[in-house]
Amino acid sequence: MALVESLLGQITLSTLVDIGITALLIYWLFSLIQGTRAVRLLIGVAVLLLVYALAQLFDLRLLSQILQTGTYVGIFALVVIFQPELRRALERIGSVGSLAWLVSPGEQRVAERVAAAVSLAAARLAADHSGALIVIARETGLDEFVETGVALDADLSADLLCTIFFPRSPLHDGAVIVRGDRIAAAGATLPLAETTVQPRRIGTRHRAALGITEQTDAVVVVVSEETGRVSLVERARIVRNLDERQLSGALLALLRPGGSRGAGILTDGARSVAAMPGRLGAIQRLPSRGHGTAGETTAAPPPSPDEHAAGVGAGGGPA
Q1: Which domains are seen in the chain, by residue range?
Q2: How far apart are CA 117 and CA 111, in angstroms?
Q3: What is the pTM of this model?
Q4: Helix (H) or strand (E) run with residue 110 in it
């Protein structure tokens, strides 16, 4: 009893605050790498640390020396290996305390124009079963991806987007990058997803959308060439089967100044996707086979596994 009273006597307000902040930091770090290959790498590091602890416990000097020597190289290797996660973490830290709510009403009008133009273009392309991949930049710069395509710097409009993604257009095989209310580039190449995904369920366009949203805070609209279904991707989470109204509302919520980084999307006219910080809410998580897949939701019954088998992706090949 005296021991319990002694421990309770050591607990102060600063101790509770310290524990709370540490717990939130650990949770934030795990949420940052959730669903990426960094999880496996982190498990590998934990295994090596366990082996080193056992080597020290049983006085295995040679093994301990080898692991200690490898530690110096391993520290620099971890920085390289976890570079995408570290960059994402710094970007999120930099976005904390954003003064977006102080911007002029013009930013709201830009968000409305972008949402209207992209949703209208997606609806037209879906009706014609024309594949499309539209990346909308937010706070993270996309210059490195703009340089892989053809620079346009053109006014954003639904007609221009439909022209770019016309099946025989020279620029349809790639991504369009939208910055503000202008099309920065077309025919751009995007990185494929690092998240473990099922190739039979995710085509090249969708993998490219997952890849760019893993590394940046961009919002991506994908139109399936085979099924004509429209998907929205944000923070490596997919919401499928959106109509023009649903897509427009979700884009406006994601793009407006100080807007949500996880928009709620009306589905089936009655249900709604719960807003979740940093990602799109989940209505229905598709089952995984073996390893986990990228977050995936649907605004209608789940598509068939071969939904993404056709089309041409951001780097070429079937989407």
Answers
A1: 2-95 (no CATH), 105-308 (3.40.1700.10)
A2: 10
A3: 0.59
A4: helix 105-127
